[in-house]
């Protein structure tokens, strides 16, 4: 099932947030035309590399057609405007105001295409006192409240290992575009979407929101444990750690029985989730007196048998090769112009039991230039002239 089949997207994005958004749309059948400068998307030049091809670019640009356009030249801007007039969606992640200066802002493009859905992705949004600040993921993690809440208890703030600010902005952008397409189908009206990495990350902190807005308390770093529920974290075993996630008195009583301390279930210090959290160090020591004598595998086996949510902490290699990941088809190998095939993760949702994924890998730089120019009605002489002038580049 390809629910975005027939939707044409002009992708004016680079690096991660925007390309991640449009890759999700390509998985679902959208035709995505990626506009790149003559040197290509920055991610083409960021490793790791396989046979000269960037892994990050391959993962986030699957299913797209690459058109090289010099947007500093008037002719390049004119071609981009022609393309936008044929598209359902435009996605851009320039600094606020740059697209308008290029003549590719929402007002200019919707004059020719009133039903256009125009999505702008940026670090801090199109307005507000921070809107002009440059923003990479670590900047937004630092300013959103996420980094302050993340880290070892008593330790320094830590960024999350992945670029969640970029990824969540891209995900929210794809969600917003899909909603706008539904709205357009009902009203015939296009939409202008303003997606900020800062807003996206800030919206994803409900535990911190609960502590700050409702409990009126400061958010504190607690490492691998949960700030509000206990036992809910990583517990040392003889060869590593086991995750134990207990929510509610029934599960806690089952845990107490399992670890050979049934009396703890009626101990006033552990009588409620709040009490257990207040007395977390004592309870952790009690649990680790049991887990510390077992390997992670044996601890997890016992916890699962007692119906207590648990897990080992897996490496990426272990997660990707797990029977469950394989059964769910989380990794797909798709054709790639330079690598033969390339592994991609793709969007994770199953539609009618199937997981849609793009049919082709990330494109060669300028690989779609001729075909896309021809789709606009340009003659071969006109296309050759643009190429000769350096406005358009082909593979």
TL;DR of this structure?
The chain has 395 residues and is α/β, with parallel strands linked by helices. It folds into two domains: 8-203 and 326-393, Crotonobetainyl-coa:carnitine coa-transferase, domain 1 (Rossmann fold); 232-312, formyl-coa transferase, domain 3 (2-Layer Sandwich). The protein is 39% helix and 16% strand.
Classify the secondary structure makeup into a structural class.
alpha/beta
Uncertain regions spanning at least 5 consecutive residues: none
Number of domains: 2
Biggest pleated-sheet summary: 7 strands, mixed
What is the number of strand segments? 14
**Can you give the helix content as a percent range?**
25-40%
* H/I helix tally: 18
Supply the CATH class of the largest domain. Answer: Alpha Beta
Our measurement of the CA-to-CA distance between the termini, rounded to an integer number of angstroms, reads: 31 Å
Q: Tell me the Rg in angstroms.
A: 25 Å
| CA-based shape | elongated
| Adjacency order of strands in the biggest sheet | 8-7-6-1-2-5-14
CATH architecture of the largest domain: 3-Layer(aba) Sandwich
**How confident overall, as mean pLDDT?**
96
Relevant CATH superfamily of the largest domain: Crotonobetainyl-coa:carnitine coa-transferase, domain 1
- In CATH terms, what is the fold-level topology of the largest domain? Rossmann fold
Proportion of beta-strand residues: 15-25%
């Amino acid at each position: 099932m390809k629910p975005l089949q027939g939707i044409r997207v002009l992708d004016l994005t680079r690096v991660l947030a925007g390309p991640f958004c449009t890759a999700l749309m390509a998985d679902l059948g959208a035709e995505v035309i990626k506009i790149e400068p003559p040197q290509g998307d920055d991610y083409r030049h960021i490793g790791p590399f396989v046979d000269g091809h960037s892994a990050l670019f391959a993962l986030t640009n699957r299913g797209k057609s690459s058109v090289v356009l010099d947007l500093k030249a008037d002719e390049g801007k004119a071609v981009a405007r022609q393309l936008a007039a044929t598209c359902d969606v435009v996605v851009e992640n320039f600094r606020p105001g740059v697209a308008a200066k290029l003549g590719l802002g929402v007002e200019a493009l919707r004059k020719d295409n009133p039903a256009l859905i125009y999505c702008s992705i940026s670090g801090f949004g199109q307005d507000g006192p921070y809107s002009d600040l440059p923003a990479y993921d670590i900047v937004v993690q630092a300013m959103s409240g996420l980094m302050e809440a993340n880290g070892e208890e008593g330790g320094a703030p830590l960024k999350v290992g992945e670029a969640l600010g970029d990824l969540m902005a891209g995900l929210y952008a794809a969600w917003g575009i899909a909603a706008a397409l539904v709205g357009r189908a009902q009203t015939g009206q296009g939409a202008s979407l303003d997606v900020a990495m800062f807003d996206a990350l800030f919206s994803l902190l409900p535990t911190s929101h609960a502590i700050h807005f409702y409990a009126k308390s400061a958010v504190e770093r607690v490492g691998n444990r949960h700030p509000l529920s206990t036992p809910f974290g990583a517990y040392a075993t003889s060869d590593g750690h086991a995750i134990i996630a207990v929510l509610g008195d029934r599960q806690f009583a089952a845990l107490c029985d399992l670890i050979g301390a049934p009396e703890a279930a009626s101990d006033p210090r552990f009588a409620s989730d709040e009490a257990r959290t207040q007395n977390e160090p004592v309870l952790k020591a009690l649990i680790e007196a049991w887990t510390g004598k077992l390997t992670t595998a044996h601890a997890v086996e016992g916890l699962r048998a007692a119906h207590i949510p648990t897990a080992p902490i897996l490496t990426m290699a272990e997660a990707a090769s797990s029977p469950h990941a394989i059964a769910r088809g989380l990794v797909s190998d798709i054709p790639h112009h330079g690598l033969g095939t390339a592994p991609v993760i793709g969007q994770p949702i199953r539609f009618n039991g199937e997981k849609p994924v793009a049919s082709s890998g990330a494109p060669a730089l300028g690989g779609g230039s001729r075909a896309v120019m021809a789709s606009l009605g340009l003659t071969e002489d006109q296309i050759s002239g643009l190429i000769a002038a350096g406005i358009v580049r082909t593979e």
